[in-house]
Design a protein that fits this description.
Largest sheet: none
Structural class: mainly alpha
Radius of gyration: 68 Å
Helix content: over 70%
Order of helices and strands: HHHHH
Distance between the termini: 107 Å
Strand content: under 5%
Length: about 550
């Protein structure tokens, strides 16, 4: 009976693969070798699947990381392009502002030049007027001490006006020099502001790039953490699988030992030998499996060590990047503070320059107003002189009328004297005729003594002389009156011309004052606009 079982068992052991698909309710394994071989096949089949899945997951992670890095590069380039466009637009706007300020300053300079030209023309007109007045007064007032004093005073006044105009010219030149200096300082301050803005933009771009790189490093570190967690999870799964396999091997070994005990009880020497051989083979295979498991565990541990080293290096790099980021932020804050200081200094310089220009323009307008008031006073004085001359001409005309009346009386007296002279001549003629007839008719004519005849001659001569002297005096008075009238008319014409010239000079001075006031208003508007721009820059 034992032999039959051994033969059956030999047949079954000889063909184990024929019974794989059959249902065996007796024993799970025919022998220990069969169990070990089955376990080894399962172990060997499961191990490369895990490796294959690990390799495929690593490839997928690499591809995903490459895709993320490419997307980040594309977004970074887009941001760089956008920032370049914004900086270009900002630079264009700054250029337009600089052009506008340059145009405003050129218009102001033209206005100052025009005011200077008008002041020069006013000075020339005043000089010409003074020269004309001096010539007219030198021709009209020769020998008159009071008129000379007035002429000297007028000359001094015109000299003072000329000095004031020269001072105004110097002041305008000084204003122009200050204006040029202000333009140079403004251009230098604008250049400094542009350089600081460019450096700030470069630092901002550098900080943004570094922050992006830091974010990328953080993401890569996060991915490394996730990968390390996945690797640890896979290691834990492998350890669990190994423990399960070891447990399964122990269970199979225990079951094989039980079967061996059962077979020992059913002792068959040939079967025992076969089982010992199979047991030796199974133990050798188990040792090989244990060595392979040890090698795989060592490889996994080495990989874990490499990953931990890489993780530590990544954390160190992150720490270094964080320190660099903090230093860059500190540098950025310092640069921002420097930029604010430069902006405030620029604003203060602009305000000081504009205040200087404003004060200079106020002085210029005040001097123009004073000149206008002085010219008005001079015009009033000239008007008074004209009124006096009108009164003098009126008096001269009245005097001329009086003299004409006297002249008429003198002419009447002269005519009467001439009539008396004529009568005396006739009397003399009659007397001479009577003397010639005296010899013929002594009784019919009257006789005259020689004394009477001489007295009549003297009376005739005296009356003729008196008439001549009266006529000469009347003619002299008429000539004097005519000369006075001519002189008064000349004075009146000269004073009217002087009044017209003073009016023109006053109008020119008023126009220059209005121009200076307009320039002052433009400076005020420019100051207000610069202050608003400075406030907007500070807010930005």
């Amino acid at each position: 009976m034992v032999n039959i079982r051994g033969a059956d068992q030999q047949k079954g052991s000889a063909s184990p693969r024929a019974e794989v698909g059959e249902i065996d309710t007796k024993k799970p394994f025919q022998s220990v070798k069969a169990a070990v071989s089955l376990f080894g096949e399962v172990a060997l089949k499961g191990k490369p699947a895990v490796r294959r899945s690990r390799l495929s997951s690593e490839n997928v992670i690499d591809k995903e990381t490459q895709l993320l890095l490419a997307q980040r590069e594309v977004s970074r380039f887009k941001r760089v392009l956008q920032s370049a466009e914004t900086t270009k637009a900002r630079a264009n706007s700054e250029l337009q502002k600089a052009k506008r300020t340059l145009n405003d300053l050129t218009t102001k300079l033209k206005a100052v030049d025009e005011s200077k030209k008008s002041a020069i023309e006013t000075a020339e007109a005043v000089k010409e007027k003074a020269r004309r007045l001096e010539e007219a007064k030198s021709q009209q007032l020769v020998g008159n001490a009071a008129r000379k004093r007035e002429l000297d005073e007028a000359r001094q006044q015109y000299k003072m006006a000329a000095r004031e105009l020269n001072a105004a010219k110097q002041q305008i030149n000084k204003i122009r020099q200050d204006f040029d200096a202000a333009l140079e300082s403004k251009s230098s301050s604008f250049q400094q502001a542009a350089e600081t803005q460019r450096s700030a933009n470069m630092n901002k771009e550098r900080v943004s790039e570094l922050s992006k790189e830091i974010g990328a490093m953080r993401e890569s570190a996060q991915q490394l953490k996730i990968a390390s967690a996945q690797i640890q999870e896979q290691q834990e799964n492998l350890v669990e699988e190994k423990d399960a396999r070891i447990h399964f091997c122990k269970a199979a070994t225990a079951e094989a030992e039980k079967n061996l005990e059962i077979l020992k009880k059913e002792y068959d020497p040939e079967l025992t030998k076969n089982l010992e051989v199979k047991l030796a083979e199974t133990s050798a295979e188990i040792e090989l499996l244990q060595e392979e498991m040890k090698k795989a565990h060592a490889l996994e541990m080495e990989k874990v060590k490499v990953l931990t080293i890489e993780f530590n290096e990544a954390t160190k790099a992150l720490q270094e990047i964080a320190t660099e980021e903090s230093s860059l932020r500190h540098m950025l804050t310092s640069l921002a503070a420097d930029l604010e200081n430069v902006k405030t200094e620029k604003i203060e310089l602009l305000e000081k320059e504009i205040e200087k220009e404003y004060a200079a323009m106020e002085k210029e307008t005040e001097s123009a107003r004073r000149e206008a008031e002085e010219l008005k006073k001079k015009a009033e004085e000239m008007r008074k002189n004209a009124e006096e001359l009108k009164e003098e001409t009126k008096n001269a005309r009245l005097l001329a009328q009086d003299v004409e009346g006297k002249l008429e009386l003198a002419l009447k007296e002269a005519e009467e004297a001439k009539a008396a002279e004529k009568k005396a001549h006739e009397d003399m003629k009659t007397i001479s005729e009577s003397e010639s007839i005296q010899d013929q008719d002594f009784g019919n004519k009257i006789k005259l003594a020689p004394e009477e005849f001489e007295s009549l001659k003297k009376k005739e001569e005296e009356s003729g002389n008196i008439a001549d002297t009266k006529v000469a005096d009347a003619m002299a008075q008429i000539e004097v009156v005519k000369a006075r009238n001519k002189e008064a008319e000349k004075k009146l014409v000269a004073n009217l011309k002087a009044i017209e010239e003073i009016k023109e000079a006053t109008d020119m001075a008023l126009r220059s004052a209005e121009m200076s006031e307009a320039a002052e208003k433009t400076l005020e508007t420019q100051l207000q606009r610069w202050r608003e721009e400075a406030q907007t820059m500070v807010v930005a």
